[in-house]
Amino acid sequence: MKKSFILVFLIIVLIPVLYAAFRPNEILSKDFVKSEITTPHSRFIQWKGNNIHYTDEGSGPTILMIHGLGGSFYNFQGLADQLKNEYRVIRVDIPGMGLSDFNSCSSQTDFFAEYTDFFKSFIEQVHIDSMYLMGNSLGGMMSWMITTRFPDKVRGMVLINSAGYEMEQILANAAGPLRWKWFGQILERGMPRLLTDYCLWHPFADKNKVNPAEYGLTYNLLNREGNIRTLTSLATCGQRPDTTLIQSIKVPTLIIWGQEDVIIPVAHAEKFHRDIPGSKVKIYSPCGHMAMMEFPEEVAGEFKKFFNP
Fold first, then answer.
1. 223 near 231, Cβ under 8 Å?
2. What is the pTM of this model?
3. What is the mean predicted confidence (pLDDT) over 286-296?
């Protein structure tokens, strides 16, 4: 019995601990990831000493697309391809994610203040006079916060599986063990491929819609130097948005959700609809947390129909 207990202890506890402590370092240099990921439409600006990445393509009314926690500009690739012939499409990497730096972030950072300052600077530097905002998850929360602070810049807004309400539970769904400081310490050597693969396919309702080419891309971006620190800092900072601000939004708003979203339940679509006068809700199924990736053509069509009836 004693030998069996020791064996179980070794398998369940000791081996994972030893693996975490001595596994190869999977953190990738910024230069390497930049060389692998940038596109012909990639651009960089400076914000508080940080190199910030975005893409800028097409012409016409401006659409600013903002990804979610741990995501990147690539999350909007399919949707951008549908819209860039009629609009100027800008996809930005939030500081500390994708190819954008956030060198000073920690769990003590006032993320709401920093990101508000960032978007103010970004809008000025890329010369946006007016825009449509499209945000997914955390990017949805950034979108409605931008709208409440700079309403004169926003022509309309699309919230795609947006964060905002009941953030304790949503953060648990989205960040999982990233909220545990000891897990963050383990990830100082990077995320194993198995975990980065899970981060990609888990939000999808239809796993067949995951582009196999994006597994390597996700691994590179999550393990880019500095990015894991941003994720763990956001997950442990304890800050929550002021959702009463949502009721002050006056711009035309399209709310898009996946019926099978396992991160932010579809019931949250109705919460936004309740608090934003004149908003419209569109639900897709089978669809998870990444509606713009699972139904890019349909989302683009819904956008055009709603804002150009």
1. no
2. 0.92
3. 98
